[in-house]
Amino acid sequence: MRSRAILALHTTMFFAFVIGSLSSPFIALSYPTISPWPFILATLFLATFVVGSWGAYGGCPFTIWENKFREQEQRGSSYPGPCIDHYAYVWFGLKIPGRTSTMILLVLLLLPGAVGLLRIALG
């Protein structure tokens, strides 16, 4: 049961991250009086946290925890590779090729920072 709790937390955090990242350009355009620095600082914080945690755990900590609990709960074996690739196939029947999900995550991670830098560049 803990594997499902980890999956629920991971999924919730992921969707919040995606919504926040994709909304950053719209927020920056809609509210030009907002300083660009929150966008840049959020990107630096998240990038440091994500890269640091992945380095410490040898991959996404949530995926590692979920796989560990799946094996303990005998819910089937752990799955290889990124959770996004696994659940895109399990939930939606989508096969994500190669490192596409990693590249998408990288773009989503860097988007708010790029928005902030663009705001600075444009004045």
Brief description of this entry?
With 123 residues, the protein is an all-alpha fold. It has helices spanning 2-30, 37-57, 61-73, 83-92, 100-122. The N and C termini lie far apart (51 Å).
Q: Quote the beta fraction.
A: under 5%
User: What is the H/E string?
Assistant: HHHHH
Radius of gyration: 17 Å
Distance between the amino and carboxyl termini = 51 Å
Described by strand count, sense and barrel closure, the largest sheet is: none
Count structural domains: 1
Indicate the overall shape: elongated
**Class by SSE composition:** mainly alpha
Residue ranges: pLDDT <50 for 5 or more in a row? none
Mean pLDDT: 92
Number of helical regions: 5
Number of strands: 0
Specify the helix fraction band. Answer: over 70%
Structure report:
The chain is mostly helical and 123 residues long. The protein has one domain. 78% of the residues lie in helices and 0% in strands. It contains five helices and no strands. Helix 1 packs antiparallel against helix 3, helix 1 packs parallel to helix 5 and helix 2 packs antiparallel against helix 5. The longest helix has 29 residues. It is elongated. The termini are far apart. 11% of the residues are buried.
